[in-house]
Each structure stands twice: as structure tokens, then as C-alpha cells.
Design a protein that fits this description.
The protein is an alpha+beta fold and about 200 residues long. The protein has 2 domains: about 1-120, no CATH class; about 135-185, no CATH class. About 15% of the residues lie in helices and about 25% in strands. The chain has helices at about 105-120, 150-160, 190-195; strands at about 1-5, 10-15, 30-35, 40-45, 50-55, 60-65, 80, 85-90, 95-105, 135, 165. The strands form 3 sheets. A 5-stranded antiparallel β-sheet has the order 3-2-5-6-9, covered by helices on one side. Strand 7 and strand 8 (about 85-90) form a beta hairpin. The radius of gyration is 22 Å and the shape is elongated.
């Protein structure tokens, strides 16, 4: 899918999303590039992009309906390409689809357009959206702490905070991770399924 832009007036914005809070403390980072013929062709990976006119703040948000780039079953070298000839292309050859929405008013319009796409894809349901979740991993509690007494205490603390859900975040796997209190120098942190196909 191709779009065209005028050099010198457009910027490309990418919102980098991250998961794995064990590894990343910042789950969102935003990058911007002014598009110019001298900059050459740009090929970027990601899920959320915007092409915005710097003169009037109008633009278009593009959201790739796919897992994060490093987590995709089908990998691709790039998701968007901005060429020096003024062509902006979305990679549709990897089987994942795109949604897009026009906006005005710069950054705030861009945010509203992204929210509009999300609401269109998945309407808000107050019975299961926006719930306050607590997680037993929050203070690095490991499998050795998962017992009735600990979970009753976590449930009571969550209730005092007004939490809707308590997520028990360990003990879900077969086998031992390197972080386990039972590991004693053994266990794995990467390549779980190579270590145990039933992990």
C-alpha cells in the first residue's frame, strides 16, 4: 500500500512498543524523522507510525495488526518504507494487515486517531477492560514464595488497593527457570522450549 508525501514538509513518527518488563523499563519510545531526499530511503520495523505534514499538523496514523517485530512468527525486514522519491509504503507482504486513520492538530490529533483505531478494533467493555491488576512478580517474588499464606496476604493487600485481579506470576511452567529459588545454578532463562519441549 503506497502513499505520497512532499519532501521538506513531512515527518515520519514511529512509536516503538516493548514488552517483557523483566528486560525493558520503558515500554514506549517515540522517534521522529524529517523526510528529505538527501536522507535517502528509510526502512523501519514497528507497529505504530504516523506521516504528518509539519506545516499544518495534519497526517495519517498507521497501525500494523501484528505482534511486536521480534515476536512475530513471520518476520519481515521492514514494516514501512519512506523513499527519497516521496513514496511511503506499508509492507503488506508478510500476511499482517494495517489500519489507518486521518487526523489534524498535530500530536494530540495523532493520539486521538490512534485511540479511535483501537476503539474500532476492540470496543470498550467495562466488565473486562480497564481492570486494576496486581502481580505477584512486582517485588521479584519467585516460585519459592508461592504458597497459600503468601497468596492470601497478596489478595488482602490487593483488596486494600482496590485491585480487581490478582495475577499469580510464576509456577505456570513445567521445568525450572534460572530465576527459580530451586535452580541452584541450574535452570534456563532463554530457549525454554529447546531445554524442554513441554515447557
Amino acid at each position: 500500500m503506497q502513499h505520497h508525501f512532499s519532501h521538506g514538509h513531512f515527518k515520519l513518527v514511529r512509536a516503538n512498543l516493548y514488552d517483557q518488563t523483566d528486560t525493558h523499563s520503558e515500554l514506549l519510545q517515540e522517534d521522529e524523522w524529517l523526510l528529505h531526499p538527501a536522507a535517502g530511503d528509510m526502512r523501519l520495523r514497528g507497529n505504530a507510525f504516523a506521516l504528518e505534514d509539519t506545516l499544518d499538523g495534519s497526517g495519517r496514523v498507521f497501525l500494523k495488526l501484528a505482534p511486536l517485530p521480534d515476536s512475530r512468527a513471520v518476520q519481515s525486514a521492514w514494516d514501512v518504507c519512506a523513499d527519497r522519491d516521496g513514496t511511503f509504503e506499508l509492507n503488506t507482504g508478510d500476511g499482517y494487515s494495517w489500519r489507518d486513520c486521518a487526523y489534524e492538530n498535530g500530536k494530540w490529533g495523532r493520539i486521538a486517531a490512534a485511540h479511535s483505531i483501537q476503539r474500532d478494533i476492540r470496543p470498550y467493555d467495562r466488565d473486562h477492560d480497564g481492570l486494576f491488576l496486581t502481580n505477584t512478580w512486582g517485588d521479584r517474588n519467585r516460585d519459592g514464595r508461592l504458597n497459600s499464606e503468601f497468596l492470601i496476604g497478596e489478595t488482602a493487600a490487593g483488596a486494600r488497593l482496590g485491585a480487581d485481579v490478582l495475577q499469580i506470576d510464576d509456577g505456570w511452567q513445567q521445568g525450572v527457570t534460572a530465576n527459580s529459588s530451586l535452580a541452584r545454578g541450574a535452570g534456563t532463562w532463554n530457549g525454554f522450549w529447546a531445554t524442554d519441549p513441554h515447557f
